[in-house]
Write a structure and sequence with these properties.
CATH superfamily of the largest domain: PPM-type phosphatase domain
Number of domains: 3
Largest sheet: 6 strands, antiparallel
Oligomer: single chain
Radius of gyration: 35 Å
CATH class of the largest domain: Alpha Beta
Number of strands: 31
Distance between the termini: 71 Å
Structural class: alpha+beta
């Protein structure tokens, strides 16, 4: 996508019947216009009579050109139907439909480009260019400042040099760079006095009235003589107390960004800070001085914006690296390629919603020859839930030492309730099966596994229980039952039964039961594939809303 290099800023004034006019910038070309967003339109019009691929504005040879991209009624500029038209400030674009949106093209010189400054220097009267320091000398200062701003020097050194150059250009007594705090209040980040002297931020009181005016107007406030300024600025407390006679406040905003997901096509640039200068004597600012200050402010805004983006990018990269490590650790704890035990056939899968998840399952042998298996679902998902799953897995590993399962569950529940600041709980199902088919299990708020026996599907319990970590003092106990050869247990988390479709319906228990019954006599691999395919097809078109975990356990008599 081509970034505009023209020495103009272009925007469109969009007027639709029954709504207030909207101003939409053109930050890049081709700039696409049409109905809806599915064809990548940058200006999205809601009139159903307008074609999806309607028109485009492209840049070339120093001008903006409007192109008809297939609108059925044709594109009109100032009442004339066109296939292509070079746009000028004030041109009116219409779509040949009564009551359709009306677009006015606006183009104005950009104060944000040093190249534009160079192109305009020849238009400045010679008398003006010979003011204090000379126009060429001041322009040289601007070029030096711009070069410094885009250098590889430390950011604080760059910003300090920028303030020094701004003071040289304006002959001000002080120069400040302000940044918004978390509450949005502008606070001094860096201050410079005459002779390059660094000022302590706490000792400086800039004119808040001038700063508020600059921010609210989104434009520079430059006052040569405060005795001639408006009363609000003239009578401002900080101005009176400090005896100020000249004030400059240049707001620094980031560039406007296109946002295809937001209700508005473009989001306004956010406030990055302000460049502020003042003096105790009147100062005559020429047109060149004003343009240089605005250009310097725009360059400083670009540097600040890039610096913030760089910090954010580094933080995001660091988080991604940490999440990658967490994912590798978590995936390493989930059984990889379940192997069958002499009396059990096993099959399982775990698909986290985020990089890491709050679901997990495990299978491990016990010292008495039986095999333990469990499935858990921690409230929420993401990194916090993943940390708790790791802790639970470590705590439950104590079962391999012969500790009573009920005792372990009660201990975990007490620990989590005691550390309530964690704010997490987990539903769990834990089972043990020995070679003779004796099945002991504990459930803690988890949905009942489905039992497949002779092709029929049933739940192994219907009454509820508390998750671990939710109710202090809750007691968990074991339940026993006898399995028959061929019995299959289907364990799952709510990421399966609560998977939504595009109509906001949930997959649900009845649908899961029907899918399991349809493949009740098949192999475990086939049953897993059928269940996952059914969930995928049901929720097609919607993002995965929760972690999905499925564990299948089939009892078989071991060979002698």
């Amino acid at each position: 996508m081509q970034e505009l290099s023209q020495p103009t800023q272009a925007e469109l004034e969009v007027s639709s019947p029954g709504s207030a006019p909207e101003v939409v910038p053109i930050p890049h070309t081709p700039f696409l216009i049409g109905r809806g967003s599915d064809t990548g339109n940058h200006l999205q019009l809601s009139d159903p009579r307008i074609s999806r691929r309607c028109a485009a504005i492209v840049a070339g040879n120093g001008a903006y050109v409007l192109e008809d991209r297939g609108h059925r009624q044709g594109i009109f500029v100032n009442g004339q139907k066109v296939a292509q038209s070079v746009l000028a400030d004030g041109d009116v674009i219409e779509f040949g439909i009564e009551g359709s949106p009306r677009i006015t093209f606006r183009a104005r010189p950009s104060p944000q480009s040093v190249e534009a400054m160079l192109s305009r220097i020849s238009s400045i009267p010679a008398a003006e260019s010979s003011l204090a320091g000379g126009g060429l000398g001041k322009l040289n200062l601007l070029l030096e400042a711009t070069s410094l701003l885009h250098s590889s020097l430390p950011l604080e050194s760059v910003l300090g040099a920028m303030l020094d150059h701004a003071m040289s250009i304006t002959s001000a007594d002080r120069a400040l760079l302000l940044e918004p705090n978390p509450e949005g209040e502008l606070k001094v980040r860096l201050g410079r006095g005459s002779g390059g002297r660094t000022l302590e931020p706490e000792s400086i009181t800039p004119s808040q009235t001038a700063l508020r005016q600059a921010v609210s107007q989104r434009a520079a406030v430059i006052t040569d003589d405060l005795n001639l300024a408006d009363l609000s600025l003239q009578n401002a407390q900080s101005v009176v107390i400090q005896g100020l006679r000249a004030v400059v406040a240049v707001p620094l905003f980031s560039v406007q960004h296109f946002n295809a997901e937001a209700s508005a096509v473009f989001t306004p640039g956010r406030l990055l800070g302000a460049l502020y200068l003042d003096s105790r004597r009147p100062t005559a600012f020429s047109n060149l001085d004003r343009q240089i200050l605005e250009s310097l402010g725009a360059q400083a805004a670009s540097i600040l914006d890039n610096a913030r983006l760089l910090v954010r990018e580094r933080e995001q990269r660091r988080m991604e690296q940490e999440l990658s490590i967490a994912r590798d650790i978590q995936q390493g704890l989930v059984p990889q390629g379940l192997h069958d035990f002499p009396h059990l056939a096993l099959c399982g899968t775990h698909t986290p919603c985020d990089t890491v998840g709050g679901d997990y399952y495990d299978v491990f042998p016990l010292s008495d020859g039986s095999t333990a298996f469990l499935i858990a679902d921690v409230s929420g998902h993401g990194l916090g839930a993943a940390l708790l799953t790791t802790m639970l897995q470590g705590a439950l590993s104590g079962l391999t030492l012969g500790t009573s399962p009920a005792k372990v569950f009660n201990h975990i529940n007490g620990f989590l309730c005691e550390h309530a600041v964690v704010g997490r709980y987990a539903t769990m199902f834990f089972g043990m099966i020995d070679a003779a088919g004796a099945f002991e299990f504990i459930y803690a708020g988890h949905p009942s596994p489905m039992l497949i026996r002779d092709g029929r599907v049933s739940d192994i319990y219907t009454e509820g229980s508390f998750p671990v970590g939710l109710v202090e003092g809750a007691e968990f106990s074991s339940t026993h039952m006898q399995l028959e050869p061929g019995d299959t247990l289907v364990l799952f988390t709510d990421g399966i039964v609560e998977a939504p479709n595009t109509n906001r319906e949930l997959f649900g228990f009845p649908r899961l039961r029907a899918v399991v019954e349809s493949c009740a006599r098949g192999s475990l691999d086939e049953l897993q594939r059928v269940v996952l395919n059914a969930v995928t097809e049901f929720s097609r078109g919607t993002p995965q809303a929760d972690d999905i975990t499925l564990l299948l356990v089939r009892y078989r008599k071991p060979n002698p």
